[in-house]
Amino acid sequence: MSAVTLGKAITQGLRDALAADAKVLVFGEDVGRLGGVFRITDGLQRDFGEDRVFDTPLAESAIIGIAVGLALRGFRAVPEIQFDGFIYPAFEQIVSHVAKYENRSGLPLPITIRVPFGGNIGAIEHHSESPEAYFAHTAGLKVVAPARPSDAYGLLRTAIAGDDPVIFFEPKARYYLKEEMDLPVPPLPLGRARVAREGTAVTVVAYGPMVETALRAAEAAAEEGTSVEVIDLRSLAPLDVETLVTSVRKTHRAVVVHEAPVFCGFGAEVAARLSHDAFDSLEAPVIRLGGLNVPYPPSRFEKLYLPDADRILQAVDESVAYG
Amino acid sequence: MAEKPLAADGLSPQQLLDLYRKMVIIRRADQEALNLQRQGELGLWGQFLGQEATQVGATVAMESTDWIVPSYREFGMAMCRGIDPGEMLGYFRGLTHGPWDPRRYRFLPFTISVATQVPHAVGFAMGCRLDGSREVVLCVFGDGATSEGDWHEAMNFAGVFQAPVVFLCQNNQWAISVPLRRQTAGSIAERAQGYGFAGVRIDGNDVLAVFSAVRSAADRARRGEGPSLIEAVTYRMGAHTSADDPTRYRLDSDLAPWSSRDPIETYAAWLRSQALLDEGQADSIDAEAEGMAEAMRGKLRRLPLPSPAASLFDRVYHDPPASFLKEREEFEATLEPVE
Predict the structure, then answer these.
(1) How far apart are CA A213 and CA A257, in angstroms?
(2) A59: closest CA among A95, A88, A39, A26?
(3) Longest pairwise C-alpha distance within chain A
(4) Where are the alpha helices (DSSP H) in chain B?
(5) Which of A77, A263, B20, B77 could pair covalently with A67 via S-S, beta carbons 3.0-4.6 A apart?
(6) What per-residue confidence (pLDDT) applies to B2?
(7) A194-321 and A2-181 share a CATH fold
């Protein structure tokens, strides 16, 4: 066992996928010689060559567009979108083609789009966004957002080896989060949430960067005598409703938290599903926590915009106090 | 007069006649499909009247192992690839988004979103190159597509990666109601220079010119000499689609010069001058086209309505999640039992 960061786990996942299947191609802006702006593709071009790990012109729509063509040709495309806020030029390719091409062709579309996402890194505009709900809303896509290194590795291997397109959101603020592990870990099926911490009084549902925040909140709540269960969704589409319902049948209360704005955010789906499937178990309304309904703010203000452990604890208290 | 053009070199009399035959047949299919739309059998039809030379010349110029990436007006090209026209009309009847197997015919699905297929063609061609294959991709789009960002991005990628792709612009001079002068102030063909490869403007109503330009561009791509752009100047003689009314934006007099340059009539005149087409052959081709139209009409009317659950759910995921399969079951349970 050794301490592996989330970033290194993803690098190793890409490396092992490239080694396992000659059809795997990694490409995007600066992923080759530089190894990516976050160094996630570090050393891959050196070891696998410029045909399989390559820099592209600076054009997100074409990066995804050629991924479609390469996938139709029989390759397993693993394009990188450099930052969350730069995925929008590729939105049409993703929604109109990546998500729908199988529907009109019957052909597999093995594309894994890696996207570093989320804030809390003190960045300038467009570098801290959480666009996951746009994609989770689109039939034909699978959407994952791991929170810890072993899951990032396991989900990435499954995504690349699978025949469906996957949007793979990497919590960039957690690239240095460590976990004691031995790589490789087995591939992890998509669509399975995990109980990140067991508890009895309130369920906090999170994914990606907010899982770590939720765990810190749970630790603080425990010191005050409140037992918080933390669910790490890992996968948004498909969504593991069963694990959510099982938890709420035990705790009777739920808070869902993400960095994206609350309005029409992914938490709305979680709240609605729990309200329907676990209505009789709930003793409080499902509380949604997220970013404010404003553009992602200048970095000096991001701590006010993003949910933190304190806001999660307030929501936990509100839930417990209800009824 | 009637000098044999250079482009005809290398084509046998039979092949030259077959270009005519194909143009006549796809025009008859186009007319029949429009009729079927008017009769309520199709939801929509996009005519390609006047563009037969470009569609036939380009398709025939490619090898059968090459790939074609179309927009939505390339029904004639698809027919030249052997896809059953009656089956294809299922698309316009609202039965399916994908009526043929793209791998079998090496003809990718129609793309409605303008220019979005161009990067697909480039990626596919990059894949051909990575495979060490001699296959080439023919990517087809209209003049309107050249205004889209995806078109530019794809051209640029093709140049950078030296992708074995032939870009064919069917410049029919109209994007619904907007004429070419509102799409671009410059030349489409000359833009290729900016991407580092050759561009050429040709007469898209001359089937031999199209054949020759596409064949030489495909040969260059096959030799590893990268992409080419061909601007085939033609004219959309019909409406944008059956839902369009061109009398609102263009005059009959706009059509007149192009009527006299009809691609089939001009080619037929040349074939006759070369004694490559006689009345008996022309009649026999007309009869074949009539038979095709009848078969197409019959096939369309016999197309079964696919099962709703299969149509809606079966080609969304290759590996469908359990929750999705449950939704499929719930949907199926809401359907009336089949009598």
Answers:
(1) 10
(2) A88
(3) 62
(4) 13-38, 52-61, 75-80, 85-93, 102-105, 117-130, 149-161, 180-183, 191-195, 207-222, 252-259, 263-273, 279-302, 308-313, 322-334
(5) A77
(6) 45
(7) yes
Query: B118 contacts in A (CB within 8 Å)?
Result: 65
The gap from C-alpha A246 to its chain's centroid, in whole angstroms, comes to: 22
Span A102-146, pLDDT tens digits? 999 999 999 999 999 999 999 999 999 999 999 999 999 999 999
Structure tokens at B266: 């001009």
Instruction: Report residue B5's pLDDT band, with 50, 70 and 90 as the boundaries.
Output: low
What are B184's two structure tokens?
Answer: 């671009």
A72 vs B contacts (CB less than 8 Å): 102, 108, 120, 123-124, 127
Q: Tell me whether 0.95 is exceeded by the ipTM.
A: yes
- Name the residue of chain A whose CA is nearest to B110's CA: A104
Angle at which helix B117-130 crosses helix B149-161, to 10 degrees, equals: 10
Helical H segments across B42-98, by residue range: 52-61, 75-80, 85-93
Question: From the candidates A60, A72, A112, which should be mutated to test the interface with B, based on the most B CB atoms within 10 A?
Answer: A72
d(C-alpha B188, C-alpha B49), whole Å: 22
pLDDT in tens, B142-168: 999 999 999 999 999 999 999 999 999
Q: Does domain A194-321 have CATH number 3.40.50.920?
A: yes
Query: How buried is B282 (Cβ within 10 angstroms: 0-12 exposed, 13-18 middle, 19+ buried)?
Result: middle
Q: What is the mean pLDDT of chain A?
A: 98
Domain residue ranges of chain A, discontinuous segments joined by +: 2-181, 194-321
Model pLDDT for residues A37-83, shown as the tens digit of each residue:
999 999 999 999 999 999 999 999 999 999 999 999 999 999 999 99
DSSP state of A284: S
Task: Tell me which amino acid residue A159 is.
Answer: A
Q: Catalytic positions of B, please? A: 236, 240, 249
- In sequence order, which residues have a C-beta less than 8 Å from that of residue B330 and are 6 or more positions away? none
Q: Which residue has the tokens 């009526």?
A: B99
Chain B: residues touching A (Cβ < 8 Å): 97-98, 101-103, 108-109, 113, 116, 118-128, 130-131, 149-150, 153-154, 156-157, 160, 315-319, 321-324
Is this prediction's pTM over 0.90?
yes
DSSP secondary structure letters along B275-334:
T---HHHHHHHHHHHHHHHHHHHHHHHHPPPPPHHHHHHTTS-SS--HHHHHHHHHHHHH
For the packed helices A60-73 and B117-130, what is the interaxial angle rounded to 10 degrees?
50
